[in-house]
Amino acid sequence: MTATLPDFFAARSSDKNGILRVILTVIILIFMISYVSAQFVAGDLPGLKSYLYELIHAFFLSLIVTILVSKLISQAAEVVTKFEAMKSINQLK
Question: CB-based burial of residue 83 (10 Å sphere; 0-12 exposed, 13-18 middle, 19+ buried)?
Answer without folding.
Answer: exposed
